[in-house]
Write a structure and sequence with these properties.
DNA-binding, mainly alpha, homodimer, elongated
Chain lengths: ~180, ~180
DNA sequence: ACTATTCCATACGCAACCGTATGGAGACCA
DNA sequence: TGGTCTCCATACGGTTGCGTATGGAATAGT
């Protein structure tokens, strides 16, 4: 779409393009030459910034893993009551669309990618564990004692995102009401 | 794993191998030569049974779409009370492992595939709509009136399956209790 | 047994992609 | 201005997969 004069690219430019390609076309779009076309350059740049494709993919996963958790937690409104923060976290947990990723929905594509990439599956498992911990904390603060409640809420959030359900907020509130 | 003497293959053999490859290695494993290797044959057979790869993939989707819904409904125990059938359906809806698919978990892989294949996305949307209708029926029979309850239950089932949560049954029951 | 049909093996040309090698364009410095 | 360093373009060989063509093996029909 945009073929600007000739900006030099950084490694992060390539990574951001990777996130976008992943969200738009799936893991098979994470290839040096295809990404280069999207960026209006050639793979010469790619192989200067990254050793090879596995190196690039590892850095892509690492960048997601270091950002997607803390950025979500930081965006929580500390003035809300625990139950309000809980609801907010549930909706953010998988619907994260921070501008640092170009405002796109990464999670479903990443979870899909994880099914065929063990490294991604590992990162996703770590992320799930951290989020479940945070959810468990908030649940206890909100007076929800059932030990499976965090898992239920998290699974619901994942399902809502996977379904692309526009009634996701209401479904989340309905379930929260029953806890 | 199994390299039997030399049985002739049918189109369905290829389709079943496709389901298995999809569940095991993702959509990128749905290729003529890779499937042929798994079946201990060559792509000569593939291109005899199918015109080309799109033809094969379309038949794969069609077969799933015609089976995955009715087979699940037929497996419901009619002697259970509505709420029991509801719970059973929720757990079956996305965890379908009928031997006709080789006892594998297709849904997560298929939903992942749908993110990068519009045809699959269409089939999945149709399937979701049919399942949501059935869920809504069961909900009314069970005296659950909230209109978003079916979507909440379905999203929860999808999330549980995506998470690979071994506590899925308990999470489902916890939410059902609150409805 | 002869023929026809069904099914598969093999070989080919084509295209896409990987990773490397090498040179060139620009910036930056002295 | 000359040199150096950063970043990218291009060309190359190798691999993998697609779809076709063609012949052969196995099976069924008569």
């Amino acid at each position: 779409m945009t073929q600007q004069p000739r900006p030099r690219l950084s490694a992060e430019d390539w990574l951001m393009a990777g996130f976008r390609a992943l969200a738009d076309q799936g893991p098979s779009a994470l290839r040096a030459e295809a990404l280069a076309r999207n960026l209006g350059t050639t793979k010469g740049s790619f192989y200067w910034h990254f050793k090879d494709l596995p190196d690039y993919l590892a850095k892509l996963i690492a960048l997601w893993e270091t950002r997607a958790f803390t950025d979500v937690l930081a965006s929580l409104d500390p003035d809300l009551p625990p139950r309000g923060r809980l609801e907010q976290l549930c909706l953010l947990a998988t619907g994260y669309r921070d501008p640092s990723y170009g405002g796109i929905a990464l999670e479903p594509a990443l979870r899909a990618w994880a099914l065929s990439a063990p490294d991604v599956a590992d990162a996703l498992r770590r992320m799930d564990a951290r989020r479940l911990d945070a959810l468990a904390d908030l649940c206890t603060q909100a007076g929800i004692t059932d030990p499976v409640a965090p898992r239920a809420l998290y699974a619901l959030a994942i399902g809502v995102e996977a379904l692309g359900d526009d009634k996701g907020t209401e479904a989340m509130r309905l379930v929260l009401r029953g806890l």
